[in-house]
Amino acid sequence: MKNSQRVVVSLAAGLAAAVVPQAWAHCSGDAACPSGAELTGAFASLNGAASNSVAVAPAAAALSLPPAASAVGAPGAFDIRFNFTNAPTAAQQAAFDTSAAFWESVLVGYQSGVTLSGAEIDVTLGNIDGAGGTLGFGGPNGFVTPQAGFVFATDGGGNQTGGITLDTSDFGAAPDINVINHEVAHVLGFGTLFELNGLYVEDSGEFTGVNGVAAYQDEFDSLASFVPIELDGGPGTANGHLDENIIVNAAGNIAGVGLTGITDAFGRDLANELLTGVLGPNPGATFLSNTTVATFADLGFVVSLPNAVPEPGTVLMVLGCGTLVGLRRRRA
To answer: Which residues contact 104 (CB under 8 A, 6 or more apart)?
Structure first.
């Protein structure tokens, strides 16, 4: 991973310049979004409390994918490069370096036939709306690029592309690593490129990628036929995150969130997963699931699952109705 000044991406030769006017920076996969169409904008906002730590699963190990994913191709190069529009402080730089290493440890390459080498992500650090409110936003941009049966957003060359903007008014010395990790996932395609890859139908609440579903069955619900996707929370939250128990008030705003009662073998509730739509009051409880990582195999990556499954009976499984755990502000 490396960092540099912002690179302005120009139109690649032979690619159409049709701008896709989608608020989420992704196309719906219909005729309005052909190969070469330009993706613009950002996925939406992430709101929540600041923290400088992230909980990675205990007994982490590089595991094989579930049997349904056994045909994943050989790893290719994958490198995340952040291009800052304004010079970061040493603490900010360190936080982004940590995030790059975090994702490079689980996304270890691209599947066979994909010729990309990594992601160029523009980063803007500054004021969005002052303290509170929006912490940041991010998503892919560039050109719709099919490769080896997958669809990416690229610069028209060898890199995925996207952008992240974070509100420095909401952080201390460095941004919350959970916020950075969350937004990087959207840049790389989580929630933003599902439809283009035929993995999700808008407002269905059902992610159907074979690798993601197999991991979800292994990790959370053996009888599931899809990965549940959030439908509450409005634009920027709905249709782009793992499902959780969001509580919406009469005005239609997010007022809180409850535990889902859906837990993994470590007893961690799905409400605390990194790619849910609401950041909890205890960011240190945030974890990355095998399910999230496996969805990237459906998006064209070679992945290394982060969570070893403990022996049966060693961890208490928490079941039952979710309980309100406090107010959480919206995240994208």
So the answer is: 1, 78, 79, 80
